[in-house]
Amino acid sequence: MTDTLARPAAVDYAATASQAYRAALAVIETVEPRIADATRAELADQRDSLKLIASENYASPAVLLTMGTWLSDKYAEGTVGHRFYAACQNIDTVESIAAEHARALFGADYAYAQPHSGIDANLVAFWAILAHRVELPELAELGVKGVNDLTEEQWETLRHKFGNQRALGMSLDAGGHLTHGFRPNISGKMFHQRSYGTDPKTQLLDYDAVRRTAHEFKPLVLIAGYSAYPRRVNFAKMREIADEVGATFMVDMAHFAGLVAGKVFTGEEDPVPYAHLVTTTTHKSLRGPRGGMVLATKDYAEDVDRGCPMVLGGPMGHVMAAKAVALAEARTPEFRTYAAAVADNAKTLADGFLRRGATLVTGGTDNHLVLLDVSGYGLTGRQAESALLDAGIVTNRNAVPSDPNGAWYTSGVRLGTPALTTRGFGADEFDRVAELAVNVLKNTTPVTASTGMPGKAKYALADGVAHATKAATAEMLAANPLYPGLEL
Ligand code: DSN
Question: 299 an active-site residue?
């Protein structure tokens, strides 16, 4: 593990964390031993697993320990200094420190640390945009102060406008995210959505095509950001397009927030100077606690602050505290080294696949993930995901552009480097991961099921491959322990 246990402080970090966890588990055990057991089992499983899920990571013991306190017990709906409950002074302190670190780390005008997840962060941003762009100007034009002052006729007009807002985001099969206006998420009901894909030949973002669609569709919101696009985005170009059509520019940087924080994405690849609003989760490449956050320009700050109680339940003081600790960690030189290694390792992983004849969407990567097109092995993404898992390699299936197998079976497998880089994996290990994964895929054959979906659901992995792969990964995992020195 790279840096999260190494502290030149007076305390022995690993030994103290071990004591803390042992004590916590002993206390939990007195009430519900099965929960203590499951907690221990999860650590053992994570230690033994080759985690290549691009959206997962390992938060430091400092971050994790921060979540286990009585800050959880306080209701604090509202914002710092303006709460709907009394006695919120310590939650005010915690939320202010989290926001202070976020503003400094990302160079943002405003930071809102309350969202409980990425979906929540996006909802806060969407409502902020609607409030900012639609409600207030429209109400002023109608000469009324609030929604309750509207006549039935005025309300009808406004209601239709609210129901017909347009959002333009990246298509799911190109790597976009459900919360960017797609039907299974509430954003698909709040907005009329159109998506921009990628160039059919290069599979890269085609800014001219985005521009053409934006001019034709005239969205209220232009959304950039992805969960399965293995490349960087030029946010200056996207902002230019948003400005041309009068759209608010929103970036969901959940996947690559750690690369922005670690200054791997700078200049036009850093969304913060270009977007009106930037949303993120805090637990992916940023390596914090599970949660979300919104960064905004001054213009949108007041609207973002309406997040709770507009769409969020009471803020979680213990998680905001952990966000503050994680953001403090992300401001260290060690985190920059980590972020650079995440991107370098992804390149090594991609090169390892390409050298062994695999097909990668866009032909490579320049962020933290690679998207492997497994159709060349005669497999669906689902078969490949399952075979890799049988061999101890944890990935997730993912659609590729214009995927003939749809979003359930898919033709792709997504792999990311943030988690294993935290464990200390470097170039040698990631090249070996590519070698092992290719070997598994080459030794997997699709099997036609007797009922339903022929050839899509079943697979067979050649004898001995799973065992040999697990043995090889076990060696790498043992050499790069998760939370070294942490003993329960
Ligand atoms: N679930 C996250 C991912 O895996 O990319 C995004 O929401």
Answer: no
Pairing of strands 369-373, 412-416: antiparallel
Q: Respond yes or no: is residue 152 known to be catalytic.
A: no
For CATH 3.40.640.10, the residue range(s) in the chain are: 72-330
Residue ranges of the chain assigned to CATH 3.90.1150.10: 333-479
Give alpha helix (H) positions in 391-464.
406-409, 418-423, 427-442
Q: Which atom number of ligand 1 is nearest to the Cα of residue 178?
A: 7
pLDDT at position 255 is 98
Between 454 and 258, name the one with better pLDDT: 258
For residue 52, the one-letter residue type is L
CATH class of the domain defined by 333-479: alpha beta
Cβ 115 under 6 angstroms from ligand 1: no
> How far is Cα 288 from Cα 422, in angstroms, rounded to an integer?
12
Position 306 scores a pLDDT of 93
CATH assignment, 72-330? 3.40.640.10
* 252 among known catalytic residues: yes
- Give the other-Cβ count within 10 Å of 183's Cβ: 10
Interval between CA 106 and ligand 1 midpoint (Å): 22
pLDDT greater than 70 at residue 454: no
**For atom 2 of ligand 1, which residue has the closest CA?**
55
